[in-house]
Specification:
Elements: H1 3-13, E1 26-29, E2 38-44, H2 47-56, E3 60-65, H3 80-91, E4 94-97, H4 100-103, H5 109-117, E5 120-129, E6 132-140, H6 144-153, E7 167-176, E8 191-203, H7 208-218, E9 226-231, E10 234-250, H8 252-263, E11 269-270, E12 278-287, H9 292-297, E13 302-306, H10 310-316, E14 321-324, H11 327-331, H12 334-345, E15 350-353
Parallel strand pairs: 2-3, 2-15, 3-4, 12-13, 13-14
Antiparallel strand pairs: 1-4, 5-10, 6-8, 6-9, 7-8, 10-12, 11-14
Helix pairs in contact: 2-3, 6-7
The protein binds zinc ion.
Length: 364
């Protein structure tokens, strides 16, 4: 297996195009064409994690948080980042970061938190717009199903939990084949009328190349007429945060105890109890305070995240129960999520979870 094969599998799940502007996801250290037999998965790639990977013979570290975030102007062991990168280079270990691209897919970081909480009917809290394209292609009647199949096979036509979604309308296409062509129907130099179907599907931008190629190869015409249109719709499966609910509401105190139990916390920082049961929960792993207004708008009874500042507790303004389970606390299950995904998609590739606790915050 080469490192780039592992990356291809990871990026089919969390395409790098979904990362935030400030982020630095992707391969940070190493040669993508190098062979690799096992990976070590972690939340933060520190010197201790690199040492662990070396001891375990793992040629690749898959980390949630990028170790190189800002540019590096030198590699002289001055900071922990430089020392970590130097250690990785010394041991021939590659480092790959899967960060906000994994935050921005519904079955990523936040989906894992929701699953641990047992939330139902989950959806993205702040769907991202500009993440959908509409493809409309004109096909002769007899070939419409073959083209539809090819589009679906390449990943087009997914709407939430539904797939193979399309719309078809019949009409008449005209064309006049020019010199040197070999038209599928009609004669060179004569206008031809052909009963056609307009097949419409939606697709995310990262599948555009694959879907268009599949459409062309299944289509009988030399020149395929199609429209690829950017949509303003929010993508239901792509964006920040998540909202879900339980069938049975929980009393606030019990809710907070449940958080401590699930996330292994000694305490949870939260706003004043509101005397209302908690049924719908908005959440965002890591630092999610920027989603407070969307959490309120979603009708959530509680908003769960990490890294909240003092004044942000005031901002909740008794509109919901705001709870901080810590940045590390909220994302601690992410390595297990990544490992499970790789084990499922690449059963012959060895994936190990780090045993190094990288939470930089200690409690006494
Ligand atoms: Zn984080």
């Amino acid at each position: 297996m080469r490192i780039k094969d592992v990356i291809t599998v990871l990026e089919a799940w969390a395409p790098p195009s979904l990362q935030e502007d400030y982020d630095n996801c992707g391969l940070q250290v190493g040669d993508p064409s190098a062979d690799v037999t096992s990976a070590l998965v972690c939340l933060d790639c520190t010197e201790a994690v690199v040492a662990e990977a070396a001891a375990k013979g793992c040629g690749l570290i898959i980390t949630h948080h990028p170790v190189i975030f800002k540019g590096l102007k030198s590699l002289v062991a001055r900071t922990y980042v430089e020392r970590t990168v130097l250690a990785a280079l010394k041991h021939g270990i590659a480092i790959y970061a899967i960060h906000t691209n994994l935050d921005n897919v519904l079955n990523g970081v936040n989906g894992e938190i929701a699953a641990r909480l047992g939330l139902l009917r989950t959806r993205v809290l702040a769907p991202r717009s500009g993440q959908l394209r509409k493809l409309a292609v004109f096909v002769p009647l007899a070939q419409a199903e073959a083209v539809r199949k090819a589009l679906f096979g390449a990943g087009a036509g997914q709407v939430g939990a539904y797939d193979e979604c399309s719309f078809s309308s019949e009409g008449v296409g005209t064309f006049k084949a020019g010199e040197g062509t070999d038209p599928f129907v009609g004669k060179v130099g004569e206008r031809h009328q052909e009963p056609e179907v307009r097949v419409e599907v939606i697709l995310p931008p990262h599948l555009e190349g694959r879907v268009v190629a599949a459409m062309r190869s299944a289509h009988p015409y030399e020149e395929v007429a199609f429209d690829l249109i950017p949509l303003a719709n929010g993508h239901p499966g792509i964006g920040s945060g998540l909202v879900g609910e339980w069938d049975q509401p929980l009393e606030e105190g019990i809710f907070l105890s449940k958080l401590k139990e699930i996330f292994g916390l000694r305490s949870v920082r939260h706003t004043a109890l509101l005397g209302q049961p908690v049924r719908r929960i908005a959440l965002c792993g890591g630092s999610g305070s920027f989603l407070l207004e969307q959490a309120v708008a979603s009708g959530a009874d509680a908003f769960l995240t990490g890294d909240l500042k003092y004044h942000q507790y005031f901002d909740a303004d008794r509109r919901l129960l705001l709870a901080d389970i810590g940045h590390y606390g909220s994302e601690q299950f992410t390595p297990a999520l990544i490992a499970r995904y790789l084990e499922r998609e690449m059963p012959t590739f060895a994936v190990r979870l780090t045993e190094t606790v990288t939470d930089p915050i200690h409690y006494s």
